[in-house]
């Protein structure tokens, strides 16, 4: 076989010359590659891949995060009486949230469709006192002194016009809530008399699970959406936001139903104004420019247990009054958001009036709520 191959190239000598020539060509090519001659250009495909990667990086979804501050007080602006520090006296707290896709992992694990998800934490303190805080011995027919401090974690999901909120709160009811110290600090600041908290409910571990579902319906709109990215409707609109809710735990056991009606310009991609016990939806997009609206809200509720009225679960007998199971609240207010660049700033105020929560109660209560929020898109 080898002899026949050699004969094809003219014999062994010619084959040797051919092999030597090929070797010289290979050496010359290597020398040229290491010399001053221009190098081959990088394949076009590499540039295409790099360009695609750059586009993907530039078009990656924003990662919004927000901080919200809440303050509620029975003496804020309009109220149905001239007494403050009565019944639900005040509440304060904050919430931080990861917006739009912050809870995608939970939605995926549960095989739930979602147009947006969010995950957040909230820290809240609430203070409750009797009607008359100037007496040393509280009226036995009035609700007890009690404070509540809790840390909550929540997950939210939005799919089309449906919004879900799931929250677990863990904390303490009693002196460790620091409600007495907070109220005394406020009273000292304004040179007011400190109430006597000696009869407050004792310490008790508190837990509560909250479930909420809301729907959003556009009843009317006028105008045209302006060009540009993001959520930028630039229209006047009227929306109805019905809701239902359930609380289960040793703090509250109750169900409720109600709704919010709002009218405004550039209505935000959310499900109504936020409150201390309802940090608001964080699943939608931020509105470009200015968004503002006015709203009214009503809620009806059936209450099976309220530890702030009926006393301690584990420290019986404790101070308590007779629960009124059917209660309601109605209120209204306004909200405004403004986005510039990656920043969004928001503020809302609402005034709420409550029906009587216990049988011995002789007057209705009112509450003013302020919510401030700042959001940044990373």
Explain what the structure shows.
This is Lipid A deacylase LpxR family protein. InterPro entries: LpxR, Put_OMP_sf. Pfam families: LpxR (PF09982). By secondary structure, the chain is an alpha+beta fold. It has two domains: 2-40; 66-377, Lipocalin (Beta Barrel), CATH 2.40.128. Helix content is 17%, strand content 44%. The chain contains six helices and 13 strands. It has helices at 2-8, 12-34, 44-58, 104-109, 179-189, 307-310; strands spanning 64-73, 87-98, 116-129, 146-159, 162-173, 204-215, 217-222, 236-249, 252-265, 289-306, 326-340, 343-354, 365-377. The protein has a twelve-stranded antiparallel β-barrel. Strand 11 (326-340) and strand 12 (343-354) form a beta hairpin. The longest helix has 23 residues, at 12-34. The protein is globular. Mean pLDDT is 84; it is low at 1-37 and 54-58.
Please give a handful of descriptors for the protein shown.
44% strand; 12-stranded antiparallel beta barrel; 378 residues; globular
> Tell me, what is the CATH class of the largest domain?
Mainly Beta
Quaternary state of this entry equals single chain
> What amount of the residues lies in strands?
35-45%
User: How many individual domains?
Assistant: 2
Structural class from helices and strands? alpha+beta
Average pLDDT level: 84
Q: How many alpha or pi helices? A: 6
Main sheet characteristics: 12 strands, antiparallel, barrel
Q: What would you give as the CATH superfamily of the largest domain? A: Outer membrane protein
Main sheet: which strands, in order across? 1-2-3-4-5-6-8-9-10-11-12-13
